[in-house]
Amino acid sequence: MQLNDFLKAGGPKIRKALEQHLGISKSYLSQLATGRAAISPSRCIVIETFTDGKVSRADMRPSDWAEIWPDYKQKNNTTAQEDTD
């Protein structure tokens, strides 16, 4: 699940709780959720934990999650796909 979708589904209380948990502003969370700002690997772990895995680190960093966390196994393989080239 994408972070933006999680936040929309959760409403303002969830958004505010995540802002406080991360120690960031509403506008910066919006930038992270919409992809205007990259989510750091350390924040990915915090967000994944906060969302109980609904938003995975692979969802937040689809192009490089396997390089950052080589031992990480996704619960489902809907976001990250192996290269077939």
TrEMBL record:
Signal peptide: none annotated. SUPFAM superfamilies: lambda repressor-like DNA-binding domains. It holds the Pfam family YdaS_toxin. One of its GO terms (molecular function) is DNA binding. InterPro entries: Lambda_DNA-bd_dom_sf, YdaS_toxin-like. This is Helix-turn-helix domain-containing protein. It comes from Enterobacter roggenkampii.
